[in-house]
Each structure stands twice: as structure tokens, then as C-alpha cells.
Fold each of these.
Amino acid sequence: MKPADAWVDPSRPKDRALVTHGHADHARGGHGEVWATPETLAIMDARYGEQRGVEVRYGETVRIGEVDVSFIPAGHVLGSAQILIEHKRERVVVSGDYKRREDPTCPPFVVTPCDIFISEATFGLPVFRHPDTGSEIDRLLHRLRAEPGRCVLVGAYALGKAQRVIMELRRRAYDEPIYIHGALERLCRLYEELGVPLGELRLATGVPKAELADKIIICPPGALNDRWSRRLPDPITAMASGWMRIRQRARQRNVELPLIISDHADWDELTRTIREVAPKEVWITHGREDALVHWCQLHQIKARELNLVGYEDEDD
Ligand SMILES: [Zn+2]
Ligand SMILES: [Zn+2]
């Protein structure tokens, strides 16, 4: 962004970075100043050590150089924002990552009219249609109750997904303690400090096997099949991710119970969002750009691919 000498989600250290949210492919350490929501700054402090942060609250507009910048809820994870950049009457919205369905851990996406909408397309193919989140949680609870003596081990990304799964369980009136892997502890605690109550959480490490029978344990995806999980009582291996739509991905990770719960917009959410934002032009980033570009062209919306390096979608 030239007139402001600032960068959005830069993949290399910059003097001034505007950061949409705390996932590692968007928020990196080592910048000079970081402009972000207070929640994103708190997450970055926890992950990278204290940042030289400038807090911008949702709805607040700040002037940087010759541009006005606002942060608007993106509904992706706690603190996640779309960044609206206004310069000489041109409005550009950088969505970062977003979704449209309800998430009890963060405020919902706000449609913001603009000239250029920069959209992600992680699940930018018509085959990606995420089911209702509540029904996925019901499948988890059903399986837990159907197999007494076992536990359900759910792989979920440490930032956002893990806390969302916990909150969704609480909403389904599951009030047993939920056991967590040590790698989730810090972010779960931070969510609670930032006003997202997760109910009773206990560390799973060091707990006798018998206590974990009939319980739900949440861990990062990387711990699903490692030595740590071998101490658990006959776990039913689950994973919460939009990628669980693809059977092969579930099989690769030995997932018995794939739960399609995503923090990214599915195909219907992407196309609905572009329709509602109604920009003059859409620029499409990280994901399956071609199908969405094609859809835009069919609907007389100017669209192009923005090939950005370094965005991995490891966050879903
Ligand atoms: Zn993300
Ligand atoms: Zn991303």
C-alpha cells in the first residue's frame, strides 16, 4: 500500500504491518510496528513475544499517511478483521480469512461495500459445502456416548478451531470437564481472558487413563497420531477441519471421525459474500482461484487472481 508506506499481512518483516489476524501465515514476528485489533495483538504477544503494537478497535478509523484505515469483523477467529483502506475515494477491502456462519468465539463478518474486494478462496470449489456446525458436534457427542470406555480425541488448530469446538460443545449443554493438550493451554487461557468462557478445562498430560474414559480430549492436529496419544484409553480419533470433506485427507491422518468444521467460507459463503459486497472488482488470493474467477465472470463481476506467496491455509 504505497500512499501509506504500510503492508497488510506481510510475509517478511516490515517497518509497519497491518495484520488481519493471528494465524501464522498472516501474522509474523519481527515487524517494526504492528497495527491490529487488541485481540490480535494479544495473540501475537503470546506467540512471538511483545510487539510494538498499535491497537485499532473494530469500527475505528485511523489515518496512516494519505489513507484512512478501518478494521471490520471478519468472523474467522477471535480478533480477526477485514481491513478497509480508503484513498482518494477508492475503497479497498482486504478480507484476510473469513467465514459467514456463526462462531460463538468472535463477532460475525460485516459486509462492507467497496470498489475492490480482496477475497480468500481456500474452499473455492463448488464441492466444498460445509454442513451445519451443530450437526457435526452432535455426531461427536453421539459417538462418545455410543462407545463407553473409549475417549474421543479431536485434532483442532490451536488458534480458533480448538476454542470454537469447546464453545460449540458447551452450547450443546456438554458440561463435563474437557481435557486439552498442553500446546493449547496458553491460547485457551488467553481466549478466556479476552472474554470467551470455555468452561472447565483440564490438562490431559499426566492424568490416569481411567479418568479419561468417556471424555473429550482436544489436541493440535500434529499430536493425533504421535506418542502422546498412545497413553489415552482407546481413542476415537476425530479431526475438526474443512478439509475433512475430502476422505483421502481423513484417511491420511487415520481419522475415524471426520468433523467438517471450518473457519473459512465454503463455496456458497464465498459467492454470497461477493454478491453482497458487490464490488467493482474482486481479487482472489490463496486457494483455488480459477473456479471463483470463472464464477465472477459468469456473473459479470471483474475478477483476477492475486498470486501471493507464503499463505498456506494451515489454519483449518
Ligand atoms: Zn486464518
Ligand atoms: Zn489464511
Amino acid sequence: MARNVADLMWEMLQKAGVKRCYGIVGDALNPVIDALRRNGNVDFVHVRNEEYGVFAAVAEAYFTGNPVAVCGTAGPGVTHLFNGLMDARKEGAAVIAIAGDVESKLIDTAALEELNPYKFFDAAALYIGRVVNPEQARAVINTAVTTAVIDRGPTVISLPGDVAASKAPDGMHTVAIPAKAVFRPAEADLEKLARLINDAKTVAIFGGDGCRDARNEVLTLANKLKAPVGYSFRGKQWLEHDNPYATGMTGLIGYGGTYNAIHGADLLLLLGTDFPFSEFLPNGNVKKVQIDTNPKHLGRRTALDLGLVGDVQATVAALLPKIREKNDTTFLEKHLAQTREFDELLGHYVEKGPGIKPIRPEYLAATLSALASDDAMFFADTGTACIWMARHIKGGANRRLFGSFSWASMANAVPNAFGAQLAFPGRQTIALCGDGGFTMLALGDLPTLVQRKARVVHIILNNESLDFVNIEQQEAGFVPFGVNFKNPNFARVAEAMGAKGIRLEEPGDVKDALTEALAYKDGPVVVDAVVDPYALSLPSHVPFHAAEGYTLSLAKQVLAGRFDDVIKTIERNVRLV
Ligand SMILES: Cc1ncc(C[n+]2csc(CCOP(=O)(O)OP(=O)(O)O)c2C)c(N)n1
Ligand SMILES: [Mg+2]
């Protein structure tokens, strides 16, 4: 049988490091999947919803650095990929989507399941190629792979079934992916930066995901400048652990001394971060410098005194010899002390946890953190799980924390954990999920995990509400609406699906239940944890409008006859402070 375009594609993808393809087959993809079967080197992961597959691919690509394939077939199967591809774009994951396309003779005829890939994927993909002629295939596939890997984001190969099954052109088809380039600002700009730093009495650092490979350089810089180091959620896992300068996160889920440090310093260094919440960044008195590989990030969240295009690691390494050491530790000590005080406050939830029913999510998360292994990978659903992960899951040199931090989609955690489990078999992969998130996507694919005996630990925060939005609505001064629902017993549902199920209602059982879940080796385990739906988190800095909104909402709720809810909100949170 002559080698066809689909054979060529898998050969190229495999040589570029693709080990798995997540998706659902059908019509246009049948020749594609037949070629994958014959190739034998790419694991096809049949998921029950294409979107689930993309979230799995995002985590796999993000943590392995290898490109990962996903597939969906013409029209509806393709549209299911979209939310996950947006996530790949925002989180920076090399995901290559193989989109089944209608036969080439039907293109632009409004055929059944026809979808214009250029229009449809425009918002998500860094590159979209439609292969309408076998002669194009090599160039399109090459560009899709190279762009995904180097620009770290999703690309799309739209492939009509008839073209996939056509004879491939002969010749060499390897994809040559270069090693990471050394990318730093010009000498003159580095000198400017060094002058700003040397002239400043106090410096604060705020780092993001761009510090992933720059931990040593950033810590050396902090040491030399006696600078407190704050971080975004995406920067936390690279910068917080074993860092004597760490002062926590800022933003609505912030904690520690970072908010005050970045507002009180003479100079703020924003390193590899596109932190989107401008109201938590300083304006006015603080001088600001931003360093990022992406020029679009420079100055878009806050006005800058200096913006530099470059990789944080290479730039800081080149900067270090140019700056003078600072010896005054007063500024640093002040913000480290604030961080310790906030830590103590958070500790109250944990200490009192065993005696409080319903279970406090803070206690659940902190206990999980204490019991999990040193190389555990934690994934949080968008929702309150993010708050508890940010505050109570401790990082470490080999621990990993991930979520839909920049796209903020619900229902990411379990598929993320599945992708990580396939990439790192046997390692603890833990999904802290909302009950809204779990029922949105994870539940339907639980049989996939059972079938593969994938060791994903699901911890469901069963609060029978879209609690994050419940809190959001109150902060904005609304009476909560559309946020409550009823759940089945998820442990029993899980058991019925062939997974291990653990129902957790008693605070005194938290330790034992989590220990049992973490030790389970035969496949997925679902811990259905009934938690306090009234748990509130106070950020280290409360913006005035949030406090005002909350007061207004509580007043409206009293007027609407929901006095009981108001009392519970106050009583259950005040007793812990
Ligand atoms: C796909 C999607 N739909 C809606 C939202 C808006 N949203 C953000 S958090 C959230 C609530 C999540 O509820 P749940 O998963 O139960 O977590 P909880 O906050 O209750 O812990 C919603 C609706 C979103 N981010 N993504
Ligand atoms: Mg919920």
C-alpha cells in the first residue's frame, strides 16, 4: 500500500515528539486513524468528549515540553475542541489539533458538517493549515509542529478525508526543531535597567510563568537586592518553594506581603508575567520595569518606565554582574513578617478544621498537601478549588501546580490530571475539582480512566453550588442567583462506574480518607468531600468595591428574607479569624 498523506503526517508528528493523540474518530478522520493504527508509535486515547482530550493534552504538553496531538472530526467534533484549544493558547501548551474536514470536492458548498477552519479557529490557533493537496502536506505539517513548539500554543491541521487518503509525495519529511534560543535585550537596555536598579533604594520582584527556567537567576537577584519576591498563580510553582524571599500572591486570591511590597517599593521588576488584574498592580509612585519574551505583554497591564523583550533567565543572568549589591534588609523583613502573619491566620482554618462540620475546604486542602508525595502534581478546577490550592497546597522542587489559570475555564482539573498521569505514569496526579466542574466534563470520561486504570485522584469539593460565582455575585452587590444545585452521592456513582469511591462527610475522617485515596493504585479514585458552601476567603488586600459590594449584597439578602444565609456566612467565617 502506497504511503498516504495521513501516514506522512503521523511520521512527521512522531519524529517531532508526539506520543499521544486524544480525541474521537469518525468520517473524515477514518483514514487518519487507520494510518495511526498502522504507524503504531502514537497512542490513541479515545475520550468521550473531545474537549476533555484537549485539556489532557494541554497538561501533557505543558509539563513534558513535547507537542501533543488531539483530533475531532468534521463540524461538531471539531467544535468540541475549541474551549480546550483556547486553554492551550492561554496556558502556553504545544497542542496540534487534527481537524477532520469535509471532502475537498465539498469545500465551500455548505455541506453536512462543513466548517470553515480559518474562521472557526481564528481566536484560538497560532496557525491554521488546510491541506487540500498532498503536495502541501509537508509544509503545512512542518509549520503546525514548529509553530506549536516554538511559540508554545495550539495549531490546527485541517484535513479532508480524501486528501488524507491520497498518495503522499516522496522525499524527506523530518521536522527539525531548534533548541531554545538565547533571547535577551540589547546591551544599552540592560545598562538602563542596571541604572534604575542601582538608583532605587528598595526593589520588589513579581514573577510569572516566564520564570519557569529562571528560578536560580531570580533568587540570586532577590538576594543581591534584598527584594521580596511575589508571584502570579502561574509563577507560584517556580518561585515560592524553598525561597527565603517569597511573599505570596496578590490579586483576589492573594495572600502574604506581596501586595504591600509591590506598592511600597521604589522599583518593581515584573518578570515573565502578564498578570491581568491591573487594579492589584501599583500606579504612580512606583517605577516599573517589565521583562517578557512576548512584546505584546509589555505595558498592557500597567504603564512602564522600561519594557524589555527577552527571556527572564538569559536577561537576569546578563544583568546580575551589572548591579550593585544592596545591604539594607528592612524592606524585605517587613514584608516577610507580613507574610508570616498571614500564614498564621491561614493556619487557624487548618488547626480548627478537625472539629468543624461541614468540612472546611481549607482544612481539606492543607491536609491533602501534607499527605501527598514530594513529586505530586496538583490540578485545580476554576472555582474555589483555585483559592484553596493557591493558599494551602505547598509546592516543592518536584511538585507541580496547574490549572486553567489564564483562560479560567471550568472543568479542567481532571482531564489535566489524566494527561499528566499518562505522561508520568504512577506519579501522584491529584485533581481538586468543583462539583460543577466534575459534572460538566470529568464525570462523562470517568469510564475512560477506569478502562486505562489511570491513577487520577479526584477530590470533589461537594458544596452543591457554583460557589465561586456565588462569592463573585455577593462581591458585586447581587443577591446570589442561579448558583445552587443538587448532587447525587458521587462516591456511589464512581463505584457504579468501576472507580473507587470514598464519601467524606466527617471532618474527623479527612486524614484517613485522603490517605486511603492517595494510596489507591488500581485506577481512578473519587473522594466526594461534602464541604462548607459558606467558606469565604479574605484576600490580603480587599479592594474597596469588593467590600462595598459584599455589604450591599448581605443587606439585600436580609431584605429578600435570606437572613439564615447571611448569618451562616458571617458566623462560619468569623469564628475562624
Ligand atoms: C466553562 C465555564 N463556564 C462558566 C464559567 C464561570 N465560572 C467560573 S467559576 C464557576 C463556578 C464553578 O463551580 P464549581 O465547579 O462547583 O466550583 P466551586 O466554585 O463551587 O468550588 C463558574 C460558573 C467558567 N469559568 N467556565
Ligand atoms: Mg461547587
